[in-house]
Structure prediction request, 206 residues.
Amino acid sequence: MSVPALPPLLLASTSPRRRELLAQAGIAFALVPPGADGGVDETPLAGEDPAAYVARLACAKARAGVGEARRRGIAGPLLVLGADTTVAVDRELLGKPVDEADARRMLRLMSGRSHQVLTGLCLDDGSTPLDCVSISVVTFRSLTTQHIDDYLASREPFDKAGGYGIQGRAALLVKRIEGSYSGVMGLPLCELGELLERYQAPRGRP
Prediction:
């Protein structure tokens, strides 16, 4: 029995890092905004587990992307990829810092200790979505006030979950990674490959 070809992949994300990682992996894709308003409500639910949070948002973004693709007149089979990344320290979710003081607080909180970076992935064809969560553990060196001041001056922290980007100057702050480097960047490629294989395998789709 032949394995059906995948529909064209649409990325429901505005993240340049996710675009770069897909291109690096040789995965052809096009962009579709995750909804007409550019996104979904990212407010955590009361008591929500970090893994459940990123899975929920990834699926919401993928489903919003499906809707936007249809609104743009994209007909026929499609496959939308949604993703969401957050950082968790003792179950506190660290999203993108709202200002410099918030970024400084996050970096101090992670100094000299380990934290989790969680990325949820969801593939949605408009019918039954498939999702998974990648969890990596990142350990920071002990950060001095000067380390934090220098990093804040780079302006890197302000559009990234947890207030840092491991692919940039924050690499100087990271002592150890356990898990997926690309997942810490926002798109775990191994898990994405496995998710694409799960979608491609016969699953009783019409």
